[in-house]
Amino acid sequence: MRLPAPVYHLKRQARLLSREAKIPLHQALDRIAAQQGFAGWSLLAAKAAETAPAGKLFAQLAPGDLVLVGARPGRGKTLMSLELAVEAMKSGHRSVFFTLEYTQRDVLERFRAIGVEPARFDGLFEFDTSDAISADYIVRILRSAPRGTLAVIDYLQLLDQRRENPSLMEQVRTLKAFARDSGVILVFISQIDRSYDPSKKPVPDLSDIRLPNPLDLSLFNKTCFLNKGEIRFQAA
Fold first, then answer.
1. CB within 8 A of 228, min separation 6: which ones?
2. For the whole model, what pTM was predicted?
3. Closest to 184 in 3D by CA, of 156, 153, 226, 217
4. Which residues contact 13 (CB under 8 A, 6 or more apart)?
5. Fewer CB within 10 Å, N side or C side of the chain?
6. Phi first, then psi: what are they for 44, rounded to 5°?
7. How far apart are CA 7 and CA 51, in angstroms?
């Protein structure tokens, strides 16, 4: 059975249903799944995982990569990044999620939204919401991480929020050097500038990254942009 819409789109429908019907999100997810002909959301998510692009994308990643994942809000960039984390853990590697946007409960719900039970990867996944998140902080936390560890930074522009931190350019250069030397894969979720017009360009690209301050985007050696179910991956 082929899904009529991307998982992120169906999940957004479920969140709306949850609010409108005043029911728990897991019940709304199951209702949406039933509308698509599945007995429950877990079965729908498992079906989606069979054709999910994250596996193919992960296969093209290598230790030391800096990956940029960009999309407008609600287009699946967080789910894609978490799917990459899951692929890393399936391979026996650790994953770390740095964020000030989500609570641990939010992230665990998103794992379940892509058909993953977090307990399956007990001991391999770490969640970090420290107010001190910056390049130096990330390096300190990952200093002893094994080669092949995949860390998601939610989001790139987060590094640029505190004036006492080094410039965004300096921080990304620090992280690039760390990734190269340690073999850790760093995945940066990125905001897209509001000027991006999908009617003129179906999928955003590097020119659409929101940058309040200068940053050499060539520091990222792989990129993944999403919009309305379309995914464009490019290796530098």
1. 6, 75, 198, 202
2. 0.81
3. 153
4. 32
5. N
6. -65, -45
7. 11
Among 204, 211, 225, residue whose Cα is nearest residue 76: 225
**189's tokens:** 């979720």
Assigned token pair, 84? 């990459």
Question: Is CATH 3.40.50.300 the right assignment for the domain spanning 54-235?
Answer: yes
pLDDT tens sequence across 65-119: 999 999 999 888 998 999 999 999 989 999 999 998 899 888 888 888 777 887 8
Q: What is the dihedral of CA 140, 146, 148, 137, to 10 degrees?
A: -10
83 vs 152: CA distance, rounded Å: 11
Q: Write the CA distances from 158 to 101, 116, 154, integer angstroms.
A: 9, 27, 7
Sheet holding 150-154, edge to edge: 125-128, 95-99, 150-154, 185-190, 66-70, 222-227, 230-235
Count of all residues that appear for the chain in the document: 236
Q: What is the CA radius of gyration of the chain?
A: 18
